[in-house]
Amino acid sequence: MDFERKDFAIKRRNRRIVTGVLAVLVVAGISYAVAGLEPAVPSVDRAVVFLDTVERGDMTIDVRGLGTLVPEKIVLIPARDAGRVDQRHLQAGMAVTPETVLIALSSPELEQQVFDIESRLRGADADYANLEAQLETQRMSQLSTIVQARGDLEGAKATYEVDAELYPEGFLVRRQSKIRMAQAESRLEVEQERVAVMAKSSKAQLAAQVARREQLERRLQLERGRVSRLKVRAGIHGVLQRMEVEVGQLVMPGTILARVSDPKRLKAVLRIAETQAKDILVGQRATIDTRSEVVDGEVVRVDPAVLNGTVTIDVRLDGDLPAGARPDLSVDGRVILAHRENVIKVGRPVYAQRDSRISLFRIEPDGIHASRVQVSIGQMSVNEIEILEGLQPGDQVILSDMSAWDDHDRIRLQ
């Protein structure tokens, strides 16, 4: 029989114990070494980030906004009388003069009023002629009465003269003749005064009739003018911007029929974010990019109201308009707020705010790693920011949005 040797079993057991202890020590050492290592630095593709260098120099503080070109003078052409649209003679974009007919309206009511007033005017002319004839007849009748009164006076005088010779003073016949003569004289005077009164009355009646006729003439001119206004004219030299009505549409007084503008004088209407518009003032200089040319201008109006988070400003353009400039053309405007000299500046990060504190990744001397630094910002322009502290001229920083690495204070560029 074969028997297992006791010393061999003991050696094998000891060897297993030593191996296990060594394994535990190796695992513990590795764990300790790994725990002592620093976290891995994340890598960022250098091609996808935007780098800029801090520098010292002059800085123009400005704000930018999008907008359109609009005419400085826009004439709204309203309907002055009720009517129906019969014709539209022009289309938008066509040149017009003050006498150009844009729209033809029709109004049977106005035409009927003109006919009625013309009829009344002809009746007034007939009434005037009839009154004039009546007054002339009355005058001739009164003149006939005066002639008769003058004859009666002459007869009374003759009778008195005869009675004065036949009868001495104090006789009744002589006194009666004298009274009849005095009555005849008085009647003649009354009839003559009546002629003068009739002349004044006739003049007043004729004047009243003339006034009524003139009133009808003015009414007729007014109504004819209203009929002529049914042909709606442009009123100025310019371009038809838009027709506001269609053929067959019934319009009331005050309805806007068309818009006419002067295309030679345009202004830029810009919409600036309300957070950036607080420093914009009338009189500040501006530049307008029409995509074909950059034009200088001046702020002439700042809207006091905020609409959809923007403030509207008007910029008057200097000099002649660039080629291709037309109403409703989209433009890019830049308003110059101030000019600062000898400041530390860098390109504007996408998330920067004025008078705030942000963090930026600054490139380390090795050119491979970047560390997070806190930076204080002062003034801002469209493309630059003023650095108050945290960076020095010559520092190179990342301006791109690095929010994906907010949990890291150091990155590696590759």
Tally of structural domains: 3
Describe the sheet with the most strands. Answer: 6 strands, antiparallel, barrel
Strand order of the largest sheet: 3-12-15-14-13-16
Looking at CATH, which topology of the largest domain would you report?
A: Elongation Factor Tu (Ef-tu), domain 3
| Tally of separate helices | 3
Overall spatial form: rod-shaped
Tell me how many strands there are: 21
- Averaging pLDDT over every residue, what do you get? 86
What is the oligomeric state here?
A: single chain
User: By helix and strand content, what is the structural category?
Assistant: alpha+beta
What's a quick, concise take on this entry?
The chain folds into 3 domains: 46-70 and 265-413, Beta Barrel (Elongation Factor Tu (Ef-tu), domain 3); 74-106 and 230-261, OB fold (Dihydrolipoamide Acetyltransferase, E2P) (Beta Barrel); 108-228, Helix Hairpins (Orthogonal Bundle). The protein is built from 3 helices and 21 strands. It has helices at 6-36, 108-166, 172-228, and strands at residues 43-44, 51-53, 55-71, 74-78, 83-88, 95-96, 101-106, 231-233, 238-243, 250-251, 256-261, 266-273, 285-289, 294-302, 310-317, 330-347, 357-363, 369-380, 384-389, 396-398, 410-413.
